[in-house]
Amino acid sequence: TPRVFSGIQPSGNLHLGNYLGALKRFVDTQNAGGFQTIYCMVDLHAITVWQDPEKLRHSTRELAAGFIAAGIDPEKSILINQSQVPEHAQLAWVFNCVARMGWMGRMTQWKDKAGKDAEAASLGLFAYPSLMAADILVYHATHVPVGEDQKQHLELTRDIAAKFNHDFGVDFFPMTEPVIEGAATRVMSLRDGTKKMSKSDPSDASRINLTDDADTISKKIRKAKTDFEPLPETLEGLSGRPDARNLVNIYAALADMTPEAVMSEYAGAQFGTFKPALADLAVARLAPITREMSRLMADPAEIDRILARGATQAREITVPILRKTYDIIGMVGST
Ligand code: AQP
Predict the structure, then answer these.
(1) Disulfide check for 326: which of 106, 153, 267, 334 has CB 3.0–4.6 Å away?
(2) Per-residue DSSP letters for 257-286?
(3) For a pocket test of ligand 1, which of 9, 18, 207 has the largest count of ligand atoms closer than 8 A to its C-beta?
(4) Coil/strand/helix, residue 186
């Protein structure tokens, strides 16, 4: 069976963008069948920027609880914490030696996150896409559901696979397909429809956290930035109105509708009508997940057991693939 791999960083503030752009689609892929699904808390990626150890522990378990609460079933999917499957980091080293500095330097996430002071950024932040390529290719995964922001990293994953195959004259690593589909591959900030909703945005009002209670969710949606025009008849009418467009996309994704269908339902509606409808929908969809997350968080030992079992299952796949990689390279003792 073909494999699907994807991950989320346990860097706190799991939000609606992560849910609609990633988690919800992971669950849909798992339930659709036809793929072996592997989902990961990428803690090694999280530490490319400073993480407080206690918070990292908490965020990792909370993220695992979020995966399970959203519908990832450890009986159907392999659920792991990246650092506990050491072949990810081992293959990443190999890819550090395959990828070129210039490739990494062109990544927009690197440029955004390193900012003006690249000299002070960690070496890990620079090499981030190489570890991401290893995460995927250590399973020979062919499909990776992600949000729009990860497209460039997935192209780099293909470049790394192709260069490895070419350098060693093998056809070993597959070409991975990004799966970027649905209405919410790019959920924007509630305070600024031109910026993506993000864990690290200093404004808590910019995002809906999966740990927010119903009141907070409603309040954030009612206060979301919008213009004063009613909703138009068609999607085209939303061009140049990024804040309005964002709310329509969120509605569509939460309701499993197309944005076009949302427009025909709410054509002519004022935000005074649309926002409360969206708030109710968001609460109806998210409250059960939030509740289940806090129930799971009451028993961290059970979460740890699930992740330990996931790591064992994962290593049945990763150990042979890493061994074969080392053998191709010429490392003695690998056969
Ligand atoms: N706003 C978003 N809309 C849709 N999808 C999103 N994703 C993230 N933000 C949005 C998707 O969530 C998955 C996991 O992301 P991540 O945690 O690995 O990394 P990230 O993109 O760095 O998350 P943030 O929230 O943007 O964190 P910071 O603030 O640290 O940069 C990915 O599939 C991603 O596409």
Answers:
(1) 334
(2) --HHHHHHHHTT--HHHHHHHHHHHHHHHH
(3) 18
(4) coil
Fold of 212-295: Tyrosyl-Transfer RNA Synthetase (1.10.240)
Using most ligand atoms within 8 A of CB, pick from 9, 108, 135, 149 the residue to mutate for ligand 1.
149
ipTM given for this complex: 0.95
DSSP string, 96-161: HHHS-HHHHHT-HHHHHHHTT-GGGS-HHHHHHHHHHHHHHHTTT--EEE--GGGHHHHHHHHHHH
pLDDT at 291 over 90: yes
Q: Which two tokens stand for residue 172?
A: 């070993």
Domain range summary for the chain, segments of one domain joined by + = 3-185+299-329, 212-295
User: What is the rounded CA–CA span in Å between residue 89 and residue 195?
Assistant: 31
Q: Per residue in 37-66, pLDDT tens?
A: 999 999 999 999 999 999 999 999 999 999
Query: What is the reported pLDDT for 148?
Result: 87
The reply to whether 212-295 shares the fold of 3-185+299-329 is no
Total-model pTM = 0.94
Task: Specify the DSSP element, H or E, that contains 171.
Answer: none
Residue 103 and residue 261: Cα distance in Å, rounded? 41
What DSSP designation does 85 have?
S
Residues 6 or more apart whose Cβ sits within 8 Å of residue 145: 4, 6, 22, 25, 26, 29, 179, 180
> Which ligand 1 atom lies nearest to the CA of residue 146?
33
Binding site for ATP, by residue number, is 9-11, 17-18, 147-149, 187, 196-200
Q: For ligand 1, what atom is nearest to the CA of residue 18?
A: 12
CATH assignment, 3-185+299-329: 3.40.50.620
pLDDT per position as a tens digit, 113-138? 998 899 999 999 999 999 999 999 99
Give the N- to C-terminal CA distance of the chain in Å, as an integer. Answer: 25
Dihedral Cα 146, 147, 150, 152, nearest 10 deg: 110
pLDDT digit string (tens) for 255-274? 999 999 999 999 999 999 99
